[in-house]
């Protein structure tokens, strides 16, 4: 009888706990990282160590001044993402399996990422299979096998093929104005570079967010006037894996366009979405007030 009464009281106590409180109670506390002496690392002021985990895959500088400035992106966006509540890592090399194990989304801004060693390909494919997200900017999706890269992000571009407009007008037509990633985006025209002759994934297909009309430049001879997707999302599931997401913005030839407030906001929302976090998590993040520092006088 006493045992039955105890069980009943326990059930009532559990029922009185709100669902949110129950979830909080069930979530184990994060264990702090320890150094070689067994001491916890100090918490870094101004960083949200519980945020979206982003790995920036950059490359060495190519092209003319102000163009393809991959190192500057690593420097700038590591700060931008940190200020918006992300946990950021990055480098000039393809992330290893160990680095990807602690990553939600890889943001790539470097040329010809379709060229990979066997180990790099294996690590990336395993990351995608477990549901990891990818965001690519500009010519990342260029490589020797565009169909392979299209299977990762929805589209691929053949290396060595004339499939670009060079310095050109890139007018955006926003196809999906209701998509939350495109909040605040207007149908602007950038001075940048657009790609055509793309290889597209067919099963599943990309979800187009914005297109452009290929400008009449010497390199686009015979393709001027074509309407080609330039911004899109891609959702797919590798056999035996978890659903994965990719977000692609094909401009960024001229580095200054990345700091356009509309573009920066779109990239932050695309990164959040690809990492399976709320789409506005990064743009809405507010850094907490700094903790008072001890008076050393």
UniProtKB/TrEMBL annotation:
Residues 66-274 form the ThuA-like domain. InterPro entries: Class_I_gatase-like, ThuA-like. Keywords: Signal. Pfam families: ThuA (PF06283). Gene3D superfamilies: 3.40.50.880. Residues 1-22 form the signal peptide. This is ThuA-like domain-containing protein.
């Amino acid at each position: 009888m006493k045992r039955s009464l105890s069980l009943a009281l326990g059930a009532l106590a559990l029922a009185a706990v709100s669902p949110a409180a129950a979830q909080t109670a069930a979530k184990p506390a994060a264990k702090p990282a320890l150094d070689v002496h067994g001491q916890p690392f100090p918490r870094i002021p101004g960083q949200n160590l519980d945020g979206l985990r982003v790995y920036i895959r950059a490359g060495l500088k190519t092209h003319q001044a102000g163009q393809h400035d991959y190192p500057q992106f690593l420097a700038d966006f590591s700060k931008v993402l940190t200020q918006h509540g992300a946990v950021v890592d990055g480098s000039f090399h393809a992330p290893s399996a160990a680095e990807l194990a602690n990553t939600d989304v890889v943001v790539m801004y470097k040329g010809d990422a379709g060229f990979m060693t066997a180990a790099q390909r294996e690590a990336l494919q395993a990351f995608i299979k477990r549901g990891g997200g990818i965001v690519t900017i500009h010519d990342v999706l260029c490589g020797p096998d565009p169909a392979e890269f299209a299977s990762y992000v929805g589209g691929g571009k053949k290396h060595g093929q004339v499939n670009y407009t060079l310095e050109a007008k890139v007018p955006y037509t926003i196809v999906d104005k209701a998509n939350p990633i495109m909040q605040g985006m207007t149908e602007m025209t950038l001075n940048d570079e657009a790609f055509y002759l793309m290889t597209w994934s067919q099963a599943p297909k990309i979800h187009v967010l914005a297109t452009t009309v290929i400008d009449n430049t010497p390199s686009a001879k015979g393709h001027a006037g074509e309407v080609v997707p330039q911004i899109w999302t891609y959702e797919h599931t590798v056999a035996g894996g978890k659903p994965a997401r990719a977000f692609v913005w094909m401009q960024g030839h001229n580095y200054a366009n990345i700091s356009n407030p509309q573009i920066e906001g779109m990239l932050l929302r695309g990164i959040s979405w690809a990492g399976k976090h709320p789409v506005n998590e990064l743009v809405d993040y507010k850094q907490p007030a700094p903790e008072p520092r001890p008076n050393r006088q």
